[in-house]
Amino acid sequence: MDAFEYISVLTSIIIGLGMAQLLLVVSRIIQYPSKGPPYWVHIGWVVYTFIFTVFWWWWEFNLRLIETWTFGIYLLVILYAFLIFLFCALLAPSDLSEHGDFRGYFYAKRRWIFSVFLLIQVVDIGDALIKGADYILAIGTQYYVSQIIIVASAVTAIVTRNERFHSTFVVALLAFTVIQGFLFYDTI
After folding, report:
1. Exposed e or buried b for every residue in 143-152, given b needs 16+ CB within 10 A?
2. Which residues have a Cβ under 8 Å from the Cβ of 69 and sit 6 or more positions away?
């Protein structure tokens, strides 16, 4: 077992636990609709996060190209997986009684949700850098431009409760992620 395989075991467990959170919230919505009617913006973020997590697992295979693993690189990758897990968990509340429904929960916790999302974007830049110069050149300018737009949108999402903004953000990001995932990252 090489260093990449060794580290992949832990990140796979962490990411798997996050995906389980998303699957559980969907099953709770189906099983107990009266406990909190679904809110489509929240569901959009759950779908986005599930797709992002699947792509993340795919993209992280590029870590195999790292020849020398340092403890700092290891911590960055584990931090990335932890933040994704935390984002999943924040989107998967087990109790809505304090907020009434998913809409109330989403807007009440938006500062936490999008602060973690913002940290994920920052760590993603570090993750891209540790994959090496060839990877940096391969992802191109569109990656950095999109990261600037996503970071600015995340900051806005932290401070605003505007439903139109949140609706537009999740739909646009979901479409962008799917298109980007299949156009630029369809092969390993």
Report:
1. beebbeebbe
2. 3, 4, 7
Number of domains, the chain: 1
Token pair 């992280």 is found at 60
With CA atoms as reference, report the closest residue to 15 among 111, 120, 106. Answer: 120
* Helix 71-90 / helix 40-59 crossing angle, nearest 10 deg: 160
In this structure, which amino acid lies at residue 91? L
- Give 128-160 as a 3 state SS string: HHHCCHHHHHHHHHHHHHHHHHHHHHHHHHHHC
Q: Identify the H or E element spanning 175.
A: helix 163-184
Per-residue pLDDT tens over the stretch 22-32: 999 999 999 98
Give the separation between CA 155 and CA 161, rounded to whole angstroms: 12
Q: Mind listing the pLDDT tens digit for each residue in 57-100?
A: 888 888 888 888 999 999 999 999 999 999 999 999 988 889 98
Q: Return d(Cα 43, Cα 103) in angstroms, integer.
A: 10
Instruction: Output helix, strand, coil percentages for the chain, rounded to the nearest 5.
Output: 80, 0, 20
Q: Domain of 161?
A: 3-184
Mind listing the pLDDT tens digit for each residue in 112-132?
A: 999 999 999 999 999 988 887
CA nearest neighbour of 91 among 100, 81, 102:
102
